[in-house]
Amino acid sequence: MSDVPRILLAGATGLVGNRVMEAAVGREDLRLVALTRREAPMPPGARMDMLVADTGRWDEAVAQVTPAAAICALGTTWRKAGRDEAAFRAVDEELVLRFARAALTAGARNFVFVSSVGADPQAKAFYLRTKGQVEERLRKLGFQRLDILRPGLLRGPRSGDRRVAERAGILVSPLANMLLHGSRRPYRAIDARTVARAALQCAGEKARGTFVHEYDAIRRLARQFETRV
C-alpha cells in the first residue's frame, strides 16, 4: 500500500466532498486523506484517514500527508456567509488558496479545483467573479497539473442548505437539461457523484498542464474512473 498515491481532500463535509469519500470506498488504487475543520462522518466501508485541524494550522497538517494530488471541494454559500463579501471570500478564495499552497509545498503534483460553470474573473455576478479570480490565481501557483471542474447546478442531498429556488431548480432539472443545447449545454444540472468521480480521475492523471472541464468532459472523466482498474 506504500506505493498507492495519497489524495488529499479539502471540503469533505460538503456535497461534492462527501461524494468523493463515497467514491473512494473499496478502491485499491488510491488512498484518500480528508482534511477538515471539524469531525465528519465517514461513509460505510471507508478505509481512509481524516485530519482535523484548525484552518490556521492547515499548513502543518498538510505537511504530514505528502500527497501526490489534492482535491479542493471547499465552498460556502452567500447565505452562510451572511451575505458579506469578505466572509464569502474568506472561504471561497483565501482558504482555497491557503490549501492549494500548502498542498504544493507538501509535494502535490496535481490539484483539482471544483469551481462553477460561468466562472469568469470579469463576471458581473460576485459569486462567478470570485470563482474566476481563484481559478486565475491557481494557474499561477505552478502545479504540474491543474484541473478545474466547472459543474452546473449540483444534484444531491444537502443538510438543510437548499434555497427554495435551488430546490425547485433541481426538481425541474431533468426537463431543463433537455432544453439546454449548444453553448448552453455546460449549464446542465449534474449529479454531485459524477463530479466527485471526475475529480478522483483527474487526481490520478499524468499529463501536465491546465485543463478546464465542463458538463460533458466531467461526465467522461467520471466514466473513466468507474472503469479504471
Instruction: Give the helix tally.
Output: 7
**Which CATH top level class fits?**
Alpha Beta
Average pLDDT score? 90
Adjacency order of strands in the biggest sheet: 3-2-1-4-5-6-9
What is the count of β-strands?
9
Reported for the largest beta sheet, the result is:
7 strands, parallel
Structural class: alpha/beta
Spatial gap, N to C terminus:
16 Å
How much helix, percentage-wise, in residues?
40-55%
Could you tell me the radius of gyration in angstroms?
17 Å
In CATH terms, what is the fold-level topology?
Rossmann fold
Order of helices and strands: EHEEHEHEHEEHEHEH
The CATH architecture classification is 3-Layer(aba) Sandwich
Overall, the morphology is globular
What number of structural domains do the residues give? 1
Low-pLDDT runs: none
Strand content: 15-25%
What would you give as the CATH superfamily?
NAD(P)-binding Rossmann-like Domain
Task: Tell me what you see in this structure.
The protein has seven helices and nine strands; from the N terminus they run βαββαβαβαββαβαβα. It has 229 residues and is α/β, with parallel strands linked by helices. It has one domain: NAD(P)-binding Rossmann-like Domain (Rossmann fold, 3-Layer(aba) Sandwich), CATH 3.40.50. The chain has a seven-stranded parallel β-sheet with strand order 3-2-1-4-5-6-9, with helices on both faces. A two-stranded parallel ribbon has the order 7-8. Strand 5, helix 4 and strand 6 form a beta-alpha-beta unit. The two termini are 16 Å apart.
